[in-house]
Amino acid sequence: MDLTYTDEQKAFREEVRAFLNEKLPARLSDKVATGKRLTKADYEEWHAILNARGWLGVTWPKEFGGTGWDAVQRHIFEEETTRAHAPRIVPFGLNMLGPVLMKYGSKEQQDHYLPRILNGEDWWCQGYSEPGAGSDLAAVKTTAVREGDHYIVNGQKTWTTLGQHADMIFCLVRTSKEGKPQEGISFLLIDMNTPGVEVRPIVLIDGEAEVNEVWLQDVKVPVENLVGEENKGWTYAKYLLTHERTNIAGVGFANTALENLRRIARLEKSGGRPLIENPFFAAKLAQVEIDLMAMATTNLRTIAAAAAGQAPGAESSMLKIKGTVIRQEINALTRQAVGPYALPFVSEALDEGSNVEPVGPDYALPATQAYFNNRKLSIYGGSNEVQRQIISKAILEL
Amino acid sequence: MNFELTEERQMLQDSLRRYLGDTVTPEMLANATESEAGHSETLWSGLAEMGVIGALFSEEDGGFGGAGFDLAVVFEEIGRAGAFEPLIASGVLAGGLLAAEGSEAQKARVEEVIGGAILGFAHSEPGARYDLDHVETTATRDGDGWRLTGRKTVVEHAGAADAFVVSARTGGDTADAEGISLFLVPADAESLAIRDYPLNGGGRAGEVTLDGVTVSQDALIGAEGAAFPAIEEAAARATCAICAEALGLMESIRGLTVDYLKQRKQFGQPIGKFQALQHRMADVLIEIEQARSAVINLAGHLETDRVKRERHVSATKNLIGRVARLVVEEAIQLHGGIGMTEEYALGHLAKRLTMVDHRFGDTDYHLERFIRLSAA
């Protein structure tokens, strides 16, 4: 048992820190730190900076232009980038589709799409969920019917995150109604500019339009956009989900959220003294910090096992539940900390360069929005109820 | 022992529930927050005509209610509908303070309030958080009248108010209960500025700046420097109102969630058939019943001595805050993605219920206060 990093790992951390000091634009880290709205251009700018260094394909092997890092290096990179308030890496092309194409895509698909993900030519979004297929993903109804050299796709996808920025969408579609629901699903790549594709924003309870509905009406998709074999899409979809669950614990996000909470609790006054000195508040803050310290180690245990070559299993479900519960608790405490200033909703103040002043401290509205927005953490990527089901089957064998 | 409503209150509840059910729509609520008034003028005049504002005042003040259970009945229905009319700001707080402390001339304004005129209560200040005695705004003698200087924050319905009941210090230090006075100030007074904005969970508020606002001698409400007990009592009544509103919101959220559990199918069956979800919804129901009992406790002790009353204020507000968080978070979780959307009815109700903990003191504030009052 040794809880310290090796000298190589420490040197790697220094290298990442030096890079962030030098290359992360203050304009971007300020926006992330203060909860301002990030634009498509902001994400693209950060992707390009990482790509120039060869650090955008964090989870990719070197042969495809990735970093080739092991699980511990990826973890260190994640810790340092979140601590520095870098924008997150948009995961749809990099963490989701990329690995699927590397494992199941044709040589042509790999050669065409993977470089375009790295150089920013394509912005991908995810076409998995449907109004009737949430936790029960195999219930997808969107159909793809083969007609000559094309599929004709009809249906509706939903909760498509940042789909408003996307050029391409990877979709689960039904190509057969025979057998079990899982057996008739195919994995299709669709150009968002094809006639019949319509994106409609969904405003969430934080007032932001982060997700979308994507309507597909008689959309013609060339057959070469099929990944792997027809009706084998479920296998690829599941493989993608194991990558979606990379960094599922969100320790880095939890750490920066906790740091933000501490900062706010020092600034806010309750009964004439800083809120952080109020024993009732301090107790709750300490409680969540203690939980996070243990969870961070659970996360490291999983990472160490992965670095030693063990395949990830149901422990990612454990990390997902514990990680999201802790982050949501930090968000709730932060909302509580801002007191009456949780009420004003002056949304314009979140735009870069806006001349609209926030009401009360500038951290108040982002705190409220983060609380509402992060209710999604326990819902998406397989709800926490589904994760509990996985644990009871796979670990407890109940 | 009798937990039935009186016949009058039962009638009020029935007619109000019917009226709000027929009148309030999600579009109406969304438009109300966007509108200049910051609430629905249709709904507000409807409530005034029905006598709902009058139900907040005693007969001697020109109303026909005014007791804790009158507040509880009215605000549970308001919450059930997700409405955000200026009933607390104008009726319970500003109007209530005029009725309790005002001169005969000032009390004449109560009749206008009952008829639908809107008053605001400009009391909270930056840095006060939830402390009622934190007043930095000053009122100094100015010839025959007074000169008011200071800043009031998150003044609900400020943009719609004809006049404000303003608290200001005529003596003592920032956090002293002694030395606070109340003044009636017209909204269009010179050197009074309002920055108006929308609120999370619906409605609007404003930052009210008083930059040497002059008012005449008769603007003073009640005795000079002795307003704190009246402010505390008005806040107790407002807390009763908002806790009842929270209860109504919880009931509506529970209804939506149970319906959804029955309708939404995944894995070939309604999700309400899954035992894990059944148990969680059962816990929600138990806690909402706790919330109802807490509201009854507070409503039934509003007219008792100060310490007893305030212990119930803090006990009820603490419990409501805890249950509100549970109800909101479980309802969103049990709905899944649809519960996160602005468009679906749950979104507004969940946000409004969450914001209850940011008004009149949060869960921790009242826990600490309850302990202090219990030791007294």
For the largest interface in this structure, which chains are involved and how many residues does each contribute? A-B, 48 and 48 residues
Number of strands of chain B: 10
Shape of chain B: globular
Radius of gyration of chain A: 22 Å
Number of domains of chain A: 3
SS summary, helix count of chain A = 12
Query: How much strand content do the residues of chain A show?
Result: 5-15%
Order of helices and strands of chain A: HHHHHHEEEEEEEEHHEEHHHH
Q: Could you say which structural class the secondary elements and strand pairing of chain B correspond to?
A: alpha+beta
Order of helices and strands of chain B: HHHHHHEEEEEEEEHEEHHHH
CATH-assigned homologous superfamily of the largest domain in chain B:
Butyryl-CoA Dehydrogenase, subunit A, domain 3
- Biggest sheet of chain B, strands in spatial order? 1-4-5-8
Oligomer: heterodimer
- Total number of strands of chain A: 10
Largest sheet of chain B: 4 strands, mixed
- Rg of Cα set of chain B: 21 Å
Helix content percent band of chain B:
40-55%
Mean pLDDT score of chain B, rounded? 97
Pfam families (chain A): Acyl-CoA_dh_1, Acyl-CoA_dh_M, Acyl-CoA_dh_N
Keywords (chain A): FAD, Flavoprotein, Oxidoreductase
Organism (chain A): Tranquillimonas alkanivorans
GO molecular function, one term (chain A): oxidoreductase activity, acting on the CH-CH group of donors
What does this 3D model show about the protein?
The complex is a heterodimer of chains A (398) and B (376). With 398 residues, chain A is α+β, with helices and mostly antiparallel strands. Chain A folds into 3 domains: 7-89, no CATH class; 124-230, Beta Barrel (Butyryl-CoA Dehydrogenase, subunit A, domain 2); 248-396, Butyryl-CoA Dehydrogenase, subunit A, domain 3. Helix content of chain A is 45%, strand content 14%. Chain A contains 12 helices and 10 strands. Chain A has helices at 7-23, 26-33, 40-53, 71-83, 91-104, 107-119, 233-244, 251-267, 279-307, 315-337, 364-373, 384-394; strands at 124-127, 143-147, 150-157, 168-174, 185-191, 197-202, 211-222, 226-227, 269-270, 273-274. A 4-stranded mixed beta sheet of chain A has the order 1-4-5-8. A 4-stranded antiparallel beta sheet of chain A has the order 2-3-7-6, with no helix packed on it. A two-stranded antiparallel sheet of chain A has the order 9-10. By secondary structure, chain B is of the alpha+beta class. In chain B, 51% of the residues lie in helices and 16% in strands. Chain B contains 11 helices and 10 strands. Chain B has a 4-stranded mixed beta sheet. Chain B has a 4-stranded antiparallel beta sheet with strand order 2-3-7-6, with no helix packed on it. A two-stranded antiparallel ribbon of chain B has the order 9-10. In chain B, strand 2 and strand 3 form a beta hairpin. The longest helix of chain B has 36 residues, at 228-263. The chains are: A alpha+beta (398), B alpha+beta (376). At the A-B interface, strand 9, helix 9, helix 10, helix 11 and helix 12 of A face strand 6, strand 9, helix 9, helix 10 and helix 11 of B.
